[in-house]
Design a protein that fits this description.
The N and C termini lie far apart (about 60 Å). The strands form three sheets. Strands 1-2-3-5-4 form a five-stranded antiparallel beta sheet, with helices on both faces. The protein is globular. The chain is of the alpha+beta class. Helices cover about 50% and strands about 15% of the residues. It folds into two domains: about 90 residues, Phosphorylase Kinase, domain 1, CATH 3.30.200; about 200 residues, Aminoglycoside 3'-phosphotransferase, Chain: A, domain 2 (Alpha-Beta Complex).
Amino acid sequence: MQQNSPRVNEAVARVALWKGSEAKVSQLSGGLTNENYLVDVDGQRYVMRIPGQSTELLSIDRANEVHNTKAAATTGIGPRVLEHVPGLDVLVLEYIPGPTMSAKALQSEQMAARMAKSFRRLHDSPRFLKDFNMFRLIEYYLGIVDEHRVTIPEGYRDWLPTIARIEHAVGIGALPPVPCHNDLLCENFIDDGDALRIVDFELSGNNDPCFDLGNTAQEAEFGQDLRAGLCAAYFGRDDARQLARMNLFALMSDVGWTLWGAIQARISEVEFDFRGYYTGRWERALDVLQSEVFSDWLTASSRLKAP
């Protein structure tokens, strides 16, 4: 049997919820920033999340995460926070039974409609503690890149004027900020049989809802038909301007998370090919930035009158 690390043992010992009981701990796969564990105590299951090292360099605020996780739980879309261990920033969360989603599992009109329902529930949560803006996050990440001599793709900064054009375009039809996840990977959806529940609120914050839609459509590798379906299901109608904004935000998720991956490649102790990750995201972003459809999205986002 694999032995737990001293860090895990300390976390388990500090949780009051199961004090005096035997806690059986097994690691959950998939985390690139944190360590996640399934804890079984007298037949009751919990999820314990231990934060990764140096995650403040990724602009992760643990107080923000705890507040927002609790807020999302009030709508039933996020897991309940059962205990927070101050100092260690360990979270003990409700275990949600059901399959973890993947890009392949989400690639259908039916699943896109279910995703839209989950987004609406999330976006109806009580206001989150802080705001999130990918354009400001990129500026912050570039500061970390310079300070820590992080390697990023050659020519990345050459595209900063274009990124400014995207910010202007999406700002024209901007929607009021709502509580957003902002980093909703397919694996952060869990199907409990009724709804697609949402977990992991590390980078959550109040934001334009189209960022959530676009970012997740990119993670799920949605083509334009499924993107349009997700957009229409969320807004209750076809909306060409918001679809264009959603597509631009999908592009920005690749642009921004490229820097996230580059910083992770420099600081993370997780065994993962972060270089391949950020290189792939930047290459995908470049394909779009150099395409004719990119200009179409800028035009649609900037000039179409709202319906």
